[in-house]
């Protein structure tokens, strides 16, 4: 028998503006880095937007959000995580005045959510750096971006202070180490980017994040502001002490970001990292004081665990942004991501033991090649039992972590409605409870259909978790 989740647990789903909204050049919106990255994380960038970039239309959430929010309400969502497209508010990123049409869109979206008692959970910067800031300043390598970001957060905090209680400063902030263009708007190619410039950019983002927390608490005393990281449990491949130390070092490289967000300073182990890599972080006099503005909670994405080994002949797992080698005890998804439900319990305990801060799982899900069929009732649907099994097994382990004493605020599945994939820019890599009729070649009606998992998740929310089944 599964126990109920805590009262007030925030069940819901998550998307990002650049993967769902479309309307990339409508109502005064400027270009973002996503508009010139038609093939996702690893693909080439283009000079201008190209027709093969599915994100330019996305799932047309910009025009269909009322229809979609109504479907979220039908499932019983308590919270909906989305992002604000920075270049919809400041088209060039460094504009003096915001774009009113962009501000109004999010007013309308948040009002629609609140109409159904769905709390908006808003990511301020979700892989959507305005393109002008990438081209003119090389993204976050330039300290000037702190000021542009500050202007942006002051604008949206002031505008939405009575509508949004939960905020995330940067999406998966630790991903900048592996994807500097996507995460930091840095146009210098990764292979040419020095570690000095990379970690200086990281410092700028960390200062900006802490500054946003400070400003948010001043403008919205009741709001909760969190950081957001990729959470990846790192297991040693063998008991060989060299493997254990390799896993330990990899783990620390991820924890560096949460350590600074929660403890308000660089950890002592960062000194060796910087010394051995010839890195000298340039700090302005106020930076150390700004970093002391610590987050209210830690949020994270969880998709997989990884193994680490000192054996250099072992190759990294397929499609895994965070590196690591495949675990022989685990199966993988169609895209090579290893499936490890117990890893979510492990990482929840790891983070809570270390920080004793509330935790929020804001991304978790299974990307799969869904097939739309006509059901027995004549309605079109997807029989995605594989997704139900994946989510059920992960949520059972979230329940176990709660029994362990971990304070978990909520759970938002990634891509609660099908969106364009961040890693591959495909629509065929589907995560949602709602099927969107659009294909990798751009064809399709954009009609929405409820999958089998839609009704499963509705029951999970209605029973506050007791509908889950033990493995």
Automatic annotation (TrEMBL):
Keywords: Glycosidase, Hydrolase. InterPro entries: GH, GH_1_N_CS, Glyco_hydro_1, Glyco_hydro_1_AS. One of its GO terms (molecular function) is beta-glucosidase activity. The keyword Signal does not apply. GO terms for biological process: carbohydrate catabolic process. It comes from Anaerocolumna cellulosilytica. SUPFAM superfamilies: (Trans)glycosidases. One of its GO terms (cellular component) is cytosol. PANTHER family: 6-PHOSPHO-BETA-GLUCOSIDASE ASCB-RELATED (PTHR10353:SF122), GLYCOSYL HYDROLASE (PTHR10353). This is 6-phospho-beta-glucosidase. The keyword Thylakoid does not apply. Signal peptide: none annotated. Belongs to the glycosyl hydrolase 1 family.
